[in-house]
Design a protein that fits this description.
Glutamine Phosphoribosylpyrophosphate, subunit 1, domain 1, six-stranded antiparallel β-sheet, single chain, 42% helix, disordered N terminus, alpha/beta
């Protein structure tokens, strides 16, 4: 009564594991003659693409899942246990919960809730985690009792009673010694290897005999994917960029430059704030856990546009966690001021600094949270959760620790989640070459000095692709595509935000109303209050609670 199996060829991506519960969430018996269900895309082993369920069975029997490169989630019954497996980088998702007489699993939380066997109970501590990161890192979810299989993990669930057992078949590689050989010859050898791996990663994700799409921001990461796709693909390459209107800053000069340089078919999609609001609920309802990234709805609308023309869209996600993009201020501060001491009090201070670096609501907890929320956080402080990751001896430098954290947490629980979930309704497969397992492994082999070289970020990555991109793209500093939420919530979207935050969130008793009023009025104070970002975070939470948990 626990897992179902798909027979024959693999179903379409994100469908196979849903079949373990049936289309409306009912539990199904295992199919006759097989005990394996799989969801995968663009998976390779030994230079061959995986195309059949029988190949997965053989790989599992041989204990070779660590050799697979690509996106997959597997569920297999072996004797008296159920085994749930997630790919190394976390491109696919898999959730589970313990029932009174067994276990239930699915590739989405929606399917678990639809079964009627999982209570729709909010995990209060998970709310605090979301407010700090804008997503749910680790195995925690917003549904009490539901856990997520971690990247590179096999979870063993005993069918005869007992607790889950966790086994890691892959993890982020150990950081290379910073004193490693940095001679010009060594640097050149690494540059050549990196270029080869980048080309292989893009090539493996190109759809044979079909045109391909690429989302192009104009930054280094998406631009290099466009350039390599154009060189390696024998069909049309279509690129998409987004604008929020001429009154807001945009990256169109850079994305247009790359599109013209690479001779792609280029589309620009302009999104007004009212369009974003109109599609907010339907987009947030796609997520198993809320993701408070303002780019979530624009990403979804780009996939809607792309779905009319292509079946596969590449993106440039992954460059920052792998190659030294300074997403966190502590990255640069560590380079300037040296390693942080690891005595106990300062260790927790280091974890608090990491949470503050996300610039979300962590520092607002004292004023923002309701009494029951404060009690939930006090039981197990968020800093304590990530302390073991900072203490992991595999990453010796602070930069290395931050990069590993960003890959393991943000990569697999935010970035890859988001694009997988918002692309599915439009029949598009999202693929991220810079999150290719072999690229990731090489990235952690690189000495830190070849990632952040002085003030030059992503140094070796730039060197590896400087022959295929305009110099303006190689030399430009990191910018990122900014959604103008600060302006939106001072003007056209403020009335809707007030209704959602003051009325929509009220039944959940999560926040202090006075703090919400100050947030909406732009009166939080501080050097960087980031009112718009925090309002977006909360309207995303409200939409998810209403459309997913309370549905």
């Amino acid at each position: 009564m626990l897992a179902a199996s798909a027979q024959g060829a693999a179903p379409q991506a994100s469908e196979a594991l849903l079949r373990a519960l049936g289309p409306s969430g009912q539990l199904l018996e295992p199919a006759q003659g097989t005990a394996l269900v799989a969801d995968w895309d663009a998976c390779w082993v030994d230079g061959r693409r995986i195309e059949a369920l029988s190949q997965w069975s053989a790989l599992m029997e041989a204990g070779r899942l660590a050799d697979v490169n690509g996106a997959f989630a597997l569920a297999c019954r072996v004797g008296d246990e159920l085994r749930l497996t997630r790919d190394a980088i976390g491109e696919r998702t898999l959730y589970y919960a313990q029932l009174a007489h067994g276990w239930i699993f699915a590739s989405t939380i929606h399917a678990l809730l639809a079964s009627g066997l999982v209570p729709r109970q909010l995990n209060l501590r998970g709310v605090a985690t979301y407010l700090s990161y804008a997503y749910l890192p680790g195995d925690e979810t917003l549904v009490e009792g539901v856990r997520e299989v971690l990247p590179g993990e096999v979870v063993h669930l005993p069918l005869t009673g007992g607790k889950a057992r966790h086994e890691q078949f892959w993890s982020v590689p150990e950081e290379v010694d910073a004193s490693a050989d940095l001679s010009p010859a060594r640097e050149e050898a690494l540059r050549v290897r990196l270029r080869q791996e980048l080309e292989g990663a893009v090539s493996r994700r190109l759809p044979a005999g079909e045109k391909v799409g690429v989302f192009l921001s104009g930054g280094l990461d998406s631009s290099l994917v466009v350039a390599l796709a154009k060189r390696l693909h024998d069909k049309e390459v279509i690129t998409w960029s987004v604008s929020f209107g001429p009154e807001y800053r945009n990256e169109l000069p850079f994305s247009t430059l790359v599109a013209e340089h690479c001779r792609t078919t280029h589309r620009v999609v302009e999104l007004a704030p009212r369009v974003i609001l109109r599609h907010l609920d339907e987009t947030i309802a796609l997520h198993s856990d809320p993701i408070g990234d303002p780019l979530t709805v624009p990403n979804s609308l780009l996939f809607r546009e792309a779905g009319a023309e292509v079946g596969v869209v590449l993106n440039g996600e992954g460059g920052d966690p792998c190659f030294g993009g300074p997403k966190n201020l502590p990255m640069l501060l560590a380079e300037l001021y040296g390693e942080v001491s690891v005595v106990d009090d300062e260790l927790l201070a280091r974890e608090r600094s990491y949470l503050r670096a996300h610039q979300k609501c962590f520092d607002d907890f004292g004023q923002a949270l309701s009494p029951k929320m404060k009690a939930a956080v006090a039981e197990r402080p968020l800093e304590a959760t990530i302390a073991p990751l900072f203490a992991d001896p595999r990453w010796r430098t602070f930069v290395g620790k931050l990069m590993a954290l960003n890959l393991f947490l943000k990569g697999s629980h935010h970035i890859l989640h988001k694009v997988d979930e918002v692309s599915a309704p439009f029949g598009v497969l999202p693929r991220a070459p810079l999150f290719d397992r072999r690229v990731v492994e090489l990235a952690f082999e690189l000495p830190p000095q070849l990632k952040l070289k002085g003030s030059v970020e992503k140094y070796l990555l730039k060197r590896a692709v400087e022959d295929v991109l305009p110099r303006e793209i190689i030399d430009r500093p990191k910018s990122g595509m900014l959604v103008p939420v600060e302006g939106w919530f001072q003007g056209p979207l403020l009335p809707e935000a007030r209704a959602r935050l003051l009325d929509g969130l009220k039944p959940w008793e999560l926040f202090d109303r006075g703090w919400l009023e100050r947030l909406l009025s732009g009166k939080l104070g501080g050097l960087r209050p980031r009112h718009g970002v925090k309002i977006w975070l909360l309207i995303t939470l409200e939409a998810w609670l209403r459309t997913v948990l309370a549905k």
